[in-house]
Amino acid sequence: MSDAVPPDRAFVCTACDHRWYYTRQRCPACGAADADTYELGTGSVLATTTVHATPPGVRQPNPLAIVAFEHVSLVAQLADETIETGDAVTFGDEAVLRDGDEPIEGPRLVRSE
Ligand SMILES: [Zn+2]
């Protein structure tokens, strides 16, 4: 497994087909060390919230969502506050998710076309 997996990809265990999102050294279901990745594609927004008191360098307000993709769910920043529960979303262009001495860049979720 690589540490540089793009954020629009999830993992699938080559031994047992279990799927997960966040980087792990081993399959959480069977413990195997080998996994492939696959593109998440389009997900469905399960819930949204907007954070108004954010850490330094994070935009304010900061709309977030829990999104269900096929087999995995994750929390991510939304492109804007117009995205609602039930909307179909996908990963958009790279943005500065947190600015500062060591900026964190990644895609925000955008409404799927
Ligand atoms: Zn497994």
TrEMBL record:
Listed InterPro entries: FdhE-like_sf, NA-bd_OB-fold, Thioester_dehydratase-like
Gene3D superfamilies membership: FdhE-like domain (3.90.1670.10)
Species assigned in the record: Halovivax cerinus
Phylogenetic lineage: Archaea, Methanobacteriati, Methanobacteriota, Stenosarchaea group, Halobacteria
Protein name stated in the entry: Zn-ribbon domain-containing OB-fold protein
